[in-house]
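Recall that a protein's primary structure is simply its ordered list of amino acids. Everything else, from secondary elements to tertiary packing, is in principle encoded there. The following example makes that idea concrete.
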Amino acid sequence: MHRVLVVDDEPQIVRALVINLKARKYEVDAAHDGATALRLAADRHPDAVVLDLGLPDMDGVDVIHGIRGWTRVPILVLSARQTSDEKVEALDAGADDYVTKPFGMDELLARLRAAVRRAEPPAGMPEGAGVIETRTFTVDLAAKKVHRDGGDVRLTPTEWHLLEVLVRSPGRLVSQKQLLREVWGPSYGTETNYLRVYMAQLRRKLEADPSHPRHFVTEAGMGYRFET
């Protein structure tokens, strides 16, 4: 059974989410402000967080930063803010997905399931399996870690998900639409600017020469390819 922390200052939304989540056998904690959210996240160790950005005591982006200081738990933003800049800010802070209000409950729950599923280690993976080595860095899929130059590389959850999809298909073209849907959710498919931003970030962190990438190759107009 998974535990979800719902953070929103609108009682009717909290009530609807709690009812729907409990009906699907989730355990649920609720917070109406950022301070309570951070305390509950530390005390209850949820498997996922559904977070509104417009909280009475602090901005939701600050809550994301606070949670990301110690855990990679999936964070699904639920907000009335709809501009591209605001979405990118939340995703850059460490959110895994972004749903705008008003929202459909079925889509929100589907995205929540996908986020939780991506966060779980592959079942039955033996020790030492799922390690991808390149000349520059090493990816440990089971531990969800990346090593370079003798140390860990800090990736945001979105960067990790993008990297994970690519390294699981070495040498194969992964289309833009597939990457968007697997990393951001089923309703995405045309937001190629997201891919450009995050691929540039991955290259800066992992490529020896980001301007001439060896491992993360762009296939113009089609998608990306990971080469070891």
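The domain at 131-226 is CATH 1.10.10.10 (Arc Repressor Mutant, subunit A). Residues 122-128 have pLDDT under 50 and may be disordered.
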